Amino acid sequence: MNLISVLPYRTDLRARERSQHAGFSLIELMVAITLGILLSIGIVTLFGATSTTNNVQDALARLQENGRYAVTRITDDLRMGSGQYCGSSTSQGWTTSTNDGPIYPGLTVLSNANGVSTGASGSFPDSGGLLGTLPGPGSTYPVGPANFMQGYDCATGGGCTPAVPAGTPPNGFPAEGLGDGLRVTGADMLTIRYQRGTGWNFTVDTSAPPHVILAPTIIGGQSMDDPVNFQNNDRALLLTCGGGQVFQVTAAGNNLTPTGLLNSSNYKPSATVGSFDVRVFNFSRDFLTVTYYLAYKADPDTAGRLIPTLYRRQNGTQVDELVQGVERLDFIYGVQYKDASLHYLTANQVNANSTSANCSPASPGLGLTAPNVEAGCLWRSVMSIEVHLLLDTVDNIALSPSDMAYRYTGATGDTTMHVPPAPNQPMDTGMLAGLMMRREFISSVAMRNGNH
Q1: Phi, psi at residue 401, to the nearest 5°?
Q2: Across the beta sheet with 160-161, what order do the strands follow?
Q3: Distance, CA of 419 to CA of 348 (rounded, Å)
Q4: In 3D, which of 440, 435, 397 has the Cα closest to residue 51?
Q5: Rounded to an integer, what distance in angstroms lies between the CA atom of residue 316 and that of residue 116?
Q6: How far is CA 444 from the centre of its chain?
Q7: 96 confidence band (pLDDT: 50, 70, 90)
């Protein structure tokens, strides 16, 4: 091969090698960068939109679950309101025991739900002492059915009607105000009382000393009743569908020895196993006073931020936090007047309209003569309760401009709700409006008729 024929081949090979190692041109580079930026913007926008949607959906799910749980807990207690198993508040079978004496014919019972000893002073929890004190042995304490329910109508400007019991537990409640542990201004309260549990069938052994023997219902080798929970100095509530009696006991397993047994001249249970409608309950431990109210709780994550929270207080001392983010709590009562007409009233109106013209005749034994009536007598005529709760999402979320148009303005008396306020502008209640969604939950609960 001669030199002339080899040179063109080497020239073409070098050209091909140079083209293989050449980079992108400036135009190609700019096009690639532009496409990359556009793709990144699309991905970031999609991620942001998806994240926002997920946050909103999570907030809505929490809002729904919180509202459902709050309504369920409240309605469960309301359905038990004034419950006494088969005892009616209008029964004429109540009798007076020789040592406690808290029973009067036609009246509901009274004793300290925390189980005070005979002769000690005590009153219903959450009553502020307004129901008096438990008297000593041999005396009676007439308390009407109206004392088994008490609502409080609270104004947005402060103050409640009737006045909320003040002081320390087990009778008093925190004051209204904007601070950790204080009650939410304008939020209603409700106190109800009832007897829980299944109770136990019983026999009466008349040997000395006379005592009651509990006989739990056994089916298929299993007890159908609650475990026996009596301790010394507890009070036992003996009930039939026609009456009952409270007496203090010393307990040894299923054997209850009453202190001054039953007043046999007025009431004596069968010496055989009681039928389904004859039961003994632990009055000291299973008779409950339950109050629902709203109070502020400090946000552990944000200094100075308060979260309105729904609380359930039992027997004056056990306080359970149920749901956070409950801004409003209101109760409306369906009350039946003496003429059988039904009226929907606030707690203030129930008290104000408790007159002889509206209330049925007072229970016997209260010492009242016409036209005198039991204080708050319409509370024993509550046929239904409507519960209103306003909940928020607790945490701030990203809202669209159209959503923000419906935010609270915070200005007192302002009707231009479409004007977005500043992010931390306070609402009428004193809370910060925040960027939260809100939803109202409503539940209507039928109450017991005649405490059955």
Answers
A1: -55, -35
A2: 160-161, 149-154, 189-195, 287-298, 306-314, 318-324
A3: 35
A4: 397
A5: 14
A6: 14
A7: very low
